[in-house]
Amino acid sequence: MLRQPTVNENLIGTESPQAAQHSAVINPYALAEQITGRKIAWQEVPDKKRLLEQILLTPYEELFDPKYEGPLYTGLRLNEKMELEQVRSPLLDVKIRVDTNDLDTPTDLLDIKTLADLGPHFDTRDIGGIEVQRVEEIGYRYLCLTVRLPDRNRLERLARVFTPELVEAIAVDPATVGSKKDWTPPNGTWSDPGRFFNEAAEFFDPIQGAVANCYYIAALS
């Protein structure tokens, strides 16, 4: 029986930039369980996508694309060549505000009454340059515009869930790898699965097909 890989089985254990290109994305189900601290009966969850969005604080359609720098790519980012590279996660440097509540809309956002009020939140005087992600007409009377909040807002909220201990468990800090060669994540082990990508295709190789589970197939490979 095939088992679902754990969070740490998808970690990168080397400083080599090329290693990031062959890294499996973090298993979202395993990461959700790591955050909640308990096993989740996924077969019984009626809306898995919605639950993942709630736990990982990220829209489902952005989870598997590294350009959004979501939680599944913690410690990785796309460079100018559109290649993944290891970086120190900005979540490690976020100072959490104690005067805010995750369940409430931030107080400063409640002060937005006109479009001009968006300027200070996006550090710009030209609100015309703010990118609109989605436009929706509501009741033939209202126009709902969706804009992406600045990264600092997203990171402040993510940092409440992704503590430094959790980030260090799922990502490698390039600044510390060289100084501590025996680094091993909590509850993790390193192993050499072989050089699969240098071999020819074989009959029993894992095949993804049309299901959005590349993280799982990559881990099997």
Helical run tally: 8
- The mean pLDDT is 79
What structural category arises from helix and sheet content?
alpha+beta
Report the principal-axis shape: globular
Can you tell me about this structure?
- Helices cover 25% and strands 9% of the residues.
- The protein is built from eight helices and four strands.
- The strands form two sheets. A two-stranded antiparallel ribbon has the order 1-2. Strands 3-4 form a two-stranded antiparallel sheet.
- Strand 1 and strand 2 form a beta hairpin.
- It is globular, with a radius of gyration of 20 Å.
- It starts with 27 loop residues before the first helix and ends with a helix.
Topology (SSEs and partners):
Layout: H1 28-36, H2 48-56, H3 60-63, E1 76-78, E2 84-86, H4 107-110, E3 132-138, E4 142-147, H5 151-161, H6 164-170, H7 174-177, H8 214-220
Antiparallel strand pairs: 1-2, 3-4
